[in-house]
Amino acid sequence: MQEVLKQIGEEGINELVSAFYRRVKSDNILGPLYPKNDWEGAEQRLADFLVYRCGGSDKYIQERGHPRLRMRHIQFTIGEKERDRWISLMSEALLERKIENPAADLLFGFFIQTADFMRNVEG
Ligand code: HEM
């Protein structure tokens, strides 16, 4: 994942996350799950997490502690429908930002795996 940071930098990650959240906001499945009054905060948390996960700044850990992502997602109902929509909006964001390989493949593989791990209901 360090390749990702080398290729697109923190700025590239921030822009990817912005492109993703622009879609989430108006999405009929995912939109309602997110806090309406803290879009900026949500965007910041995902971006900081990804930078950290790619071997960059540990700002995420300093502000939020250990990620424990599955636990933090238990409060949201996540089934196949939510997982697939998350992945599809993130794929659109990767295309919009024209992220090339290897970063695109590395990020996509990580997203697929992590999104599936977040599922907490059947179907
Ligand atoms: C599978 C479908 C997913 C759904 C429906 C979902 C939904 C959410 C929601 C509603 C939040 C709260 C927003 C906030 O206030 O921070 C959140 C937070 C977060 N999500 Fe997801 N998420 C999904 C997958 C993922 C994946 C694949 C990743 C990582 C690649 C991820 C990383 C995060 C992070 C880092 C936070 C902030 C955690 C914190 O520090 O509180 N999520 N997610």
Summary?
The chain is mainly alpha-helical. The protein has helices at residues 2-25, 39-53, 59-64, 69-73, 80-96, 103-117.
Describe this structure in words.
This protein has 123 residues and is an all-alpha fold. The chain has one domain (2-117): Globins (Globin-like, Orthogonal Bundle). The chain is 67% helix and 0% strand. The chain has 6 helices and no strands. The longest helix has 24 residues, at 2-25. The N and C termini lie far apart (30 Å). The model has no long low-confidence stretch (mean pLDDT 97).
For the structure shown, list the relevant keywords.
123 residues; binds protoporphyrin IX containing FE; Globin-like
Which CATH class is shown?
Mainly Alpha
CATH H-tier superfamily: Globins
Cα distance spanning the termini = 30 Å
By CATH, the topology is Globin-like
The SSE order reads: HHHHHH
Q: Roughly what is the average pLDDT, rounded to an integer? A: 97
What is the radius of gyration? 14 Å
